[in-house]
Specification:
Number of helices: 2
Distance between the termini: 12 Å
Strand content: under 5%
Shape: elongated
Radius of gyration: 11 Å
Length: about 40
């Protein structure tokens, strides 16, 4: 299956949010974290 369920997407987004809270100190760092977690569509 190539598609994420809503629950999986929510978990993925929450994991990214937690990384941003822990590691990002600037908007640029937050953007780098998000871009680094992109998945192939």
């Amino acid at each position: 299956m190539d598609e994420m369920t809503s629950q999986e997407l929510n978990q993925f987004l929450e994991a990214i949010a937690e990384l941003i809270e822990l590691k990002a100190t600037t908007p640029q760092e937050a953007a780098e974290i998000v871009r680094g977690k992109k998945i192939k569509a």
